[in-house]
Amino acid sequence: MFSSASRAGFRLSRAATGTVVRRMAMSTLNSGGNGAQQAKTRTPRLRTLKRIVFGAALGGLTYTSWLMYRNRNPETQLPFDPSKKTLVLLGTGWGSTTVLKNLDTENFNVVVVSPRNYFLFTPLLPSCTVGTIENRSIMEPVRLLMRHKTREVKFYEAECTDIDAAKKELTLERRVDSDGNEVKPGEGETTKINYDYLVVGVGGTVNTFGTPGVEQHACFLKEMGDARKIRRRLMDSVESASFDDITDAERDRLLHMVVVGGGPTGIEYAGELHDFLVDDLTQWYPELADRVRITLVEALPNVLPAFDKKLIDYTQSTFKENKITILTRTMVKEVKDKSFTVQNPDGSRSEIPYGLLVWATGIKSQPVVNKIREQFAAAQTNGRGLLVDEYLRVKGAKDVWALGDCALSGYAPLAQVAAQQGKWLSRHLNRLAADNAQNPEADLHALIEEKSRPFKYSSQGSLAYIGSEKAIADLPFFNRNITAGGIATFWFWKSAYLSELFSLRNSTLVASDWVKRFFFGRDISRE
Ligand code: FAD
Ligand code: NAD
């Protein structure tokens, strides 16, 4: 299966094609004898088939048009109902947006708080750094979703910075001033709001492990703003390297692209960068392309520690073929503006010049999570996030749930975990709230345990793009896992993500970006 997946796929299609050709040849030969008779019986069948195909196409088109019409023309919504409880959702990521999508807003007055007024489809974020996909194709404005709920939903574009659990009060801080300029944490305008129920889905923030110079000089790959910054820095490095009056050493520095962290984020970014180099830079910067080097630095003995050994080997050999240098057992100790320091496997230190450095070493808690933990200090004893029970209730708290990367639920920080938790939580809140519509004082926090089964994650497997139109997959199959890598897996990766995108709008935009790239290449403009 593994690594011969593409060959297997090819064999299958050849065999299938052969059968079709043989059948066609047979039918042509047979038609020699009683051809007129056969043509007669075939015609009605063909006509029926044509009608079915035509009907299906028309049905599909009508349904799509109706979906588009409905999206553009939302119905009138119910206003906030003072007799209902207020449910505040923190965040517009995988967890909170899934809750919002599936929540029956008739049961609650829902308020959403997030510094980001859109949902971001993170699995395709590495593709945005080099223009394989345009940024807006993987962003879905949260107001489109809110406007389609039965009852109005209130949205605050702000960060929750503090919580007073006794008063059930949250402090929100705006990240932009009245002129639209970004403001530093602690300097924005603040607002206070109250909640009856609180769902915390604030994700994580980049972990620099306190490494000096990372915040100042490295690029991250977590939010859309990061992808935009990487694209600008990448093109700046290449354009600066094309000046004639710089030394060769300086040109080589500018064209040295470094990725720190061999987890899936670092691997996918390095893969995209390689494609950009081979497909586009070679065409438009032929004098520079040969000098571009990509290096991936990983502290552990191999990349992708969470993947199957065969997939690790396959990724490492693909990177070798693609001339991406992998430095394993090598830890970045400091980042300066033009070079970084590593600790080599033998313990010695080296200084390596770079033009662009992307830091992808995982995540840690958001500051607000620490504030929430402080409120329930006796039960919240783990600094990596919010400890939750099997019903996603924040331990030690009342009427507070947490999900996704900010919750310590025993599962990996993955989009699929956050989305499944979001579905589970909304389903249970809907059911309990509906059950207790007659009794507004019902205690959902307690009822959830009485009336629900605990949350259980069901893994759909892992997929990662590794460059040169190859992907790797580790998929559950009955009681075991199957692994696959190569070009066929890449097409599987594409179709899986296309079907998982948030909306028809997103899927259409991403598909058209892929087609656009195929015909016109990537856009190499700086912005
Ligand atoms: P997020 O999606 O990070 O959302 C957090 C939300 O909270 C955001 O809207 C943020 O603006 C908001 N927020 C932050 N602070 C505050 C605050 N103080 N107050 C209010 N709101 C706040 N996982 C997979 O399973 N498969 C993949 O292929 C995959 N690819 C990835 C690729 C990349 C480049 C990255 C970075 C991650 C990838 N992941 C993938 C991991 C996945 O994105 C996360 O596990 C997932 O986003 C977690 O969802 P979440 O809802 O917990 O947090
Ligand atoms: P990660 O935690 O998975 O990997 C970070 C890597 O950086 C680790 O291997 C670590 O050893 C290395 N590292 C840390 N400090 C270092 C240093 N100073 N020098 C060199 N190497 C260092 O982080 P990630 O890749 O950002 O992923 C975060 C989460 O998102 C994970 O749960 C991951 O599974 C998920 N994710 C999944 C996908 C996918 O499924 N395709 C894609 C991206 C992210």
TrEMBL record:
One function term, GO molecular function aspect: NADH dehydrogenase (quinone) (non-electrogenic) activity
Name of the protein in its database record: NADH:ubiquinone reductase (non-electrogenic)
One protein family per Pfam: Pyr_redox_2
InterPro entries attached to this UniProt entry: FAD/NAD-bd_sf (IPR036188), FAD/NAD-binding_dom (IPR023753), NDH-2 (IPR045024), NDH2-like_C (IPR054585)
Keywords in alphabetical order: FAD, Flavoprotein, NAD, Oxidoreductase, Transit peptide
Catalytic activity: a ubiquinone + NADH + H(+) = a ubiquinol + NAD(+); a quinone + NADH + H(+) = a quinol + NAD(+)
SUPFAM superfamilies: FAD/NAD(P)-binding domain
Highest taxon above the source species: Eukaryota
Residue ranges occupied by any FAD/NAD(P)-binding domain in the UniProt entry: 86-422
Domain External alternative NADH-ubiquinone oxidoreductase-like C-terminal: 460-523
Similarity remark: Belongs to the NADH dehydrogenase family.
GO cellular component: a single term: mitochondrion
Annotated source species: Coemansia erecta
E.C. numbers: 1.6.5.9
